[in-house]
What we know:
This protein is of the alpha/beta class. The protein folds into two domains: 4-64, no CATH class; 78-318, Aldolase class I (TIM Barrel), CATH 3.20.20.70. The protein contains ten helices and twelve strands. The chain has helices spanning 11-17, 38-41, 54-57, 122-132, 151-163, 176-179, 181-192, 214-226, 244-256, 280-293; strands at residues 7-8, 36-37, 81-83, 86-87, 93-97, 138-142, 169-174, 199-205, 229-235, 260-265, 301-304, 313-314. Helix 4 runs parallel beside helix 5. The longest helix has 14 residues, at 280-293. The protein is globular, with a radius of gyration of 19 Å. The termini are far apart. The mean pLDDT is 93.
Amino acid sequence: MQNSSLYFNKIEDFLDFLEIPSLIHYDTSPNFSFFTTKHYAKKIQKGNPFDPLLLQILPQKQELEKHDQFIKDPVGDKAAVQKSGILKKYKSRALLLSTRACSLNCRFCFRRNLEHENYNELSSQLDQWLAQNTDIEELIFSGGDPFSLPTQSLKNLLDICKKHTHLKILRFHSRYPITDPQKLQSFLPLLSTLLKNHQGVFVSHVNHAQELDQASFEIFKNLQSMGYTLLNQSVLLKGINDQANSLIELSKKLFSQGVLPYYLHQLDKAEGTSHFEVSDEKALQLHQKLMEALPGYLVPKLVREIAGEAHKTPLYSQI
Length: 319
């Protein structure tokens, strides 16, 4: 059971903490529930209704707008399901929806509208599926967020992975370095046991430099010292990080914490997220400015996920 002193799940309490009045454009009873950690909330500037971290997690009435291109499953997750909780879209890789829970509910989440199944039988299904699919070399732990699982539940899944020698790489996607680093710290002994027979990749999801702090630096330093490759993926979001200086600062700050920018995603068009959309033309202009301002290793790939495609699609190839 979660400690209520560590998170907000009532919008009114959250706005009181931030000294922000409940303005009319906020949705106080959203279909997609509100949730965030207090660690993340403390990074938001008090009294500022336009703070870029606030806008990522605060439900707004714009989410109720309907647009034809914005659908419940924009990236084709349902079509990729192999077993409950196991997805395969790309050659030699599979993705594990290990839990429906996250450390915060991002309003732009592309899985916000999916009906999550019960993953209680995931361990046995994973064991059987991996035994039958020996072409899988990399398993990606996603969700939700894998570090929302109880430690023993994640250990059970990882113990299954250790049995299947065709698995070479274990990858974790997580927001916990910036939302609840203390909880992630408790998983580090478990994560340290994996690299004897596997390569480890840790992909954080950071959209703005303001999300990074000393606590995230300590987490990344520990993961790096274990031998994990550290990457970051961001989503391009209107009013949050759609300025060149914001993206440049993010890349530099990530690198200062030992993390390489990996992907800059164009928004996945999930129902309820249209107010975050940045045009392709602006996205390309921003990416050009990044290439002009940064060394190549700090320029993330600008991509879009297209349902049914065998890889992420570079935005340049669509113009």
